[in-house]
Amino acid sequence: MTEDFDVRLVENAKYYTPGAEYKRDSWIGDYQKAYDRFLADPVAFWNNVAQDLEWIRPWDSVREWNYPYAKWFVNAKLNITANCLDRHVKNNRRNKVALIWRGEGGAERVYTYQRLLSEVMRFANALKKLGVTKGDVVCIYMPMIPEQIIAMLACARIGAVHSVVFAGFGATALNMRIRDAEAKIVITSDISIRRGKAIPLITIVQEAIDNAPSVEHVIIHSRRREPPVVIHPDFELDFYEIMNNAERECPPEVMDAEDPLFILYTSGSTGTPKGVVHTCAGYMVGAYYTTKAVFDIKDEDIYWCTADPGWITGHSYIIYGPLAAGATIFLTEITADFPDPGIWWKLIEEQKINIFYTAPTAIRMFMKLGTQWPQKYDLSSLRIIGSVGEPLNPEAFEWYYKEIGKERCPIVDTWWQTETGMQMITTIIGERMRPGFAGKAIPGVVADVVDKTGTPVPAGTMGFLVIKEPWPAMFRTVYKNDERYRNYWYTIKDCYMAGDLAVKGNDGYIMVLGRSDDIIIVSGHNIGTAEVESALVSHHAVAESAVIGKPEPIKGNSIKAFVILKLGVKPSEKLTQDLISHVRKTLGPIAVPHEIEYVDKLPKTRSGKIMRRVLKAKEMGIDPGDVSTLDE
Ligand code: WT7
Q1: Within this chain, do residues 163 and 210 fall inside the same structural domain, yes or no?
Q2: Among 40, 74, 134, 430, which residue has the least CB neighbours within 10 Å?
Q3: According to the 3-state scheme, what is the secondary structure of 83-114?
């Protein structure tokens, strides 16, 4: 993959330094000073951050590191919802707005901290009444609506482990996740609404719970009055009915620091997704700290992260981080281009958004559509703009900086992962920014670019992005598959291997180049090649398949599938359409191949492993590099 890397990017240093004045009153202050403070005494550094939060019992030690296993805030007791909700209600801020939600068609709902707490407690009691107790897994499959957040927080309130599945996934993907986590309850909505269309979720859930014996109840939040949802009374329940019949008060469950808080599935290099497990205390401290340090949220700010709460970005930077910091969050299910591509800028003007966090794929889409859309609206409320999910290429950086930030707002290009739980690399506001480069390790994090042996590579040389010390929000295991957890730490000596390729500039800034493994990032969504391959192979006409990512200007990558058909089956346009709808049904619309090519054989190693790298190189017209293991 060395081929796509252009060394000129590293040599032509170009910097921007907006928002230098922000530094004076920012939460983190001067980057280098903060980083030095951390390096001098990491334990004192995190000890100090954790003091901001409320604990039922303090910790005996900040960190216990037993490679590759870490414990943070050992023996402390806490509940994250007490920090996200009760703490603000008690501190005279019960009337502060926690959440503003906008639906398509103009519906708006506003939740103060008090109201959010009340609804979370009620729903928590409703779950309790159904027999949900600490440690039980609850699967949440809902659109971007306040009830999704209420459901998540209600789980955390009683110590149930939420496993949120993004509502763009199909029945098979959902079934796999329900079964792996042995979810007792599934919470869903009848429909989600996208671009004016209702997309049924309940039918997908009904299909997905077939063959999932752990599921005792399905809770359905009904958005549509007509036709009303028909509830199967033996196991389906109505969201608001059970909530309204529940008790009001629900004290937070006492959680140990290392009790699991949630599972979140992410694509891996095999067909089965990984259940990334995060725990209560470390995750809370990491999400809270980075929200303050990176976004520098002030009391009067309105903050908008465009992610779905069902992804890690939403978990950490719509819900847990911002609420722990007492922020006002804006949430909407409105997509960036409906009814027209000005809608997000209109919302920024209307809501006077101060901090805006989105993804490169959205930025590149806006770039393509032209500057007339953002120019129609007043974006002067913006103070900080952010990016996450994949590399923010220099062209997209420049556009975002000029057209949205008006050369005034710092851009925080934040590199992190589902596994890291919190942001790890960025350019702290007020520091000079370098297009194409995410920046440096956030104080609290030790990151580097190394070769296979773990030796740091010189500036300008591509290597593997690694993390060298444990951090509080690090995942603790892969659910029911600890070996997959250990793999992250045992591939490169003494390092957590992120799976990304990167390069460092002479200034120490890190440019993330993309994945080094079998994961394709399409519009910011992680898709495992193996997942798409096994979905294709599950079709009766397919004998074998190999899937690659092809660079694409807006989505980042598009999915191309090579398919070998079973003997006697002939390729046809109809079959291609069939295969596409088969993948859509099993994995969901986000994993659908954009292109299918029928082939007679696939490049494989002598041990039978498909060499996707060779397919990719051929596709892009470049040299595949070392093919000595290829079986002719
Ligand atoms: C992968 C993690 C973390 C929230 C969203 C994705 C890529 C993420 C950046 C960035 C370059 C990035 C990496 C990473 N990625 N942020 N700022 N610059 N690449 O979480 O689904 O776990 O994906 O997303 O390849 O490994 P995720």
Answers
A1: yes
A2: 40
A3: HHHHHHHHHHHCCCEEEEEECHHHCEEEEEHH
Domain CATH number, residue 203 = 3.40.50.980
Whether 107 maps to a domain, the answer reads no
How far out from the chain centre does Cα 565 lie?
35
Overall number of domains in the chain: 3
> Angle, to 10 degrees, between the axis of helix 113-129 and the axis of helix 146-158?
60
Q: Which of 515, 534, 566 is the last residue before a domain boundary?
A: 515
For the ranges 98-112, 290-304, 520-534, 607-621, the lowest mean pLDDT is seen at: 607-621
Which of 397, 526, 527, 557 should be mutated for ligand 1, with most atoms under 8 A from CB? 526
Which atom of ligand 1 sits closest to the CA of residue 267? 21
Nearest residue by C-alpha to atom 1 in ligand 1: 417
Q: Cα(287)–Cα(310) distance, rounded to whole angstroms?
A: 16
Residue with tokens 């003494």: 494
Which residues does ligand 1 sit against, CB inside 6 Å?
266, 312-313, 388-391, 413-418, 438, 498-500, 512, 515, 521, 526
Considering the domain architecture, whether residues 405 and 433 belong to the same structural domain is answered as yes
CA pair distance 76, 232, nearest whole angstrom: 43
Q: Are 499 and 525 contained in the same domain?
A: no
Torsional sign, CA 420, 425, 428, 429: negative
Q: Is the pLDDT of residue 292 over 80?
A: yes
Fill in the amino acid letter for 310.
G
Q: With 0.70 as the threshold, say if the pTM is over it.
A: yes
Which atom of ligand 1 sits closest to the CA of residue 498?
26
Average confidence score pLDDT of the chain:
93
| Whole-angstrom distance, CA of residue 182 vs CA of residue 184 | 6
Terminal Cα-to-Cα distance of the chain (whole angstroms): 22
Tell me: pLDDT of 606 over 70.
Answer: no
Q: What is the pLDDT of residues 335-371, one digit of tens each?
A: 999 999 999 999 999 999 999 999 998 998 999 898 9
Index of the ligand 1 atom closest to the CA of residue 512: 11
Ligand 1, atom 11, lies closest to the CA of 391
Residue nearest to ligand 1 atom 20, measured at CA:
417
For the cut 80, the answer to whether the pLDDT of residue 517 exceeds it is no
- Considering the domain architecture, whether residues 155 and 21 belong to the same structural domain is answered as no
Q: What mean pLDDT comes out for the span 205-216?
A: 96
The residue contributing the CA closest to ligand 1 atom 7 is 390
- The closest-lying atom of ligand 1 relative to the alpha carbon of residue 414 is 17
Which of 164, 317, 417, 515 for mutating ligand 1's site (highest number of atoms within 8 Å of CB)?
417
The answer as to whether 259 is a domain residue is: no
Range of the domain at 352: 3-79+278-515
CA of 539 to the centre of ligand 1 (A): 31
Q: Which pLDDT band, with edges at 50, 70 and 90, does 621 fall under?
A: confident
